[in-house]
Amino acid sequence: MSQMKKRLRKELIEKRKKLSKKEVLEKSKQIEKRLFEMKEFKQASTILFYVSYDNEVYTHDMIKECTSGKKIAVPICDKKDRCLILSELGSWDNLESGSYGILEPKKEKVKEISISEVDVIIVPGVGFDLNCHRIGHGKGYYDNLLKNSKALLIGLAYDWQIVKHIPIEEHDVLMDKIVTEKRIIDCNK
């Protein structure tokens, strides 16, 4: 992995850690509004959401609001096989702290679904560029999951997380769209 990518990841994570709770919630609400108004989002019946942590774009409210009318799935981190397992989420109350301190379905509430059932995947990222390249936390969980997906990939980001250029590697998966509090970047144009 390039030094430039490591440095960029570190800078962006440090900046994200400094955000106030108020700023995270305000900007996330604006991002949610844009996301929920998207035609592709409205038409999707099954949506995979990441469960936010550590000042990422806050998805908790989005997930709670979507549980009626749509099938919502969330990832479970399988550290042993370094992959994500997808589970349908029946209720927010079915979550507990899991790998890396991220909320995941309780063992007895896991209802596995296949990636092929998912219409839209809401993807976390440390940063994105205008060409829809993404930089994650560097563990490869999402790249491994997304390379086999036919779903629409939507990255959520604060506008300052959109950088000029992200160095790409061959395993990196491109987003279809990126939603920030200020705009929607459409990469399929």
Protein described:
The chain is an alpha/beta fold and 189 residues long. Helices cover 26% and strands 25% of the residues. It has a single domain, classed as NagB/RpiA/CoA transferase-like (Rossmann fold, 3-Layer(aba) Sandwich). It has helices at residues 3-17, 21-37, 39-43, 60-66, 141-146, and strands at residues 46-48, 71-78, 83-88, 95-97, 103-105, 112-113, 120-123, 127-129, 134-135, 152-156, 162-163, 177-179, 184-186. The model has no long low-confidence stretch (mean pLDDT 93).
Kindly, what is the distance between the CA atoms of the first and last residues, rounded to a whole number of angstroms? 29 Å
Can you summarize the main beta sheet? 8 strands, mixed
Q: Which CATH-level-2 architecture?
A: 3-Layer(aba) Sandwich
- The total of helices stands at 5
- The strand count comes to 13
Rough outline:
globular
